[in-house]
Amino acid sequence: MSRDRDVDLDVDVDVESDLDMGANVKPGDVRSDLPEDVQGSGEGGRHRGREVALQVLYAIDLASDEGLAVQELQEQIFERIVENFDVPRVAEQFARELVVGVVERIPALDEILGAHARNWRVSRMAAVDRNVLRLAVFELGDSDIPVAVVIDEAVDLARRFGADSSPAFVNGVLDAAAREVRAA
């Protein structure tokens, strides 16, 4: 066994508190104020999948900051987060697709973000903002979801999990990045 596997995931990311979910979201919550097409069926849907994907990407980001092998820990992190929250199967499947896609393309996604985040290096962005942006740019490039929906969802994630300034920052970067990504 490699040394990385013996680590026992003691990055111990408390996603619930680290992403400020405590008072606003309970495990398994599905936002009832969202339209049915965003929320999905009673099982959760894409919006919940994006929330789970963000939590996994955030935890992977923290683990990689500690030098742990991301590829080896990705599944462990995903399972750990899914265990702690009641995640509907539809949302879990969508979240897995997003996480795998983002992790495979982090260098390319970060290059796009770096080109459109004025005066910000991607490595210096807040971890939540960085991962919301990666997720959104991946969706812009890898799906036919309308640009406005991708940006709205990203801004919503930034509002719920990021700092007070996160929604405006995410909106500005994505507005610029969307033109390049969708034009390609």
Lay out the secondary structure.
Blueprint: H1 15-18, H2 36-39, H3 46-65, H4 70-84, H5 89-104, H6 106-116, H7 127-142, H8 147-161, H9 166-183
How far is the N terminus from the C terminus?
43 Å
CATH class: Mainly Alpha
The CATH topology annotation reads as N-utilizing Substance Protein B Homolog, Chain A
Outline type: globular
Question: What would you report as the Rg, rounded to the nearest angstrom?
Answer: 16 Å
Total strand count, please? 0
Provide the β-strand percentage band: under 5%
- Helical percent range? 55-70%
Mean pLDDT, to the nearest integer, reads 79
Number of H- or I-type helical stretches:
9
Report the CATH architecture. Orthogonal Bundle
Total count of domains:
1
The H/E string reads: HHHHHHHHH
Q: Low-confidence runs (pLDDT<50, min 5 residues)?
A: 1-44
Task: Name the structural class.
Answer: mainly alpha
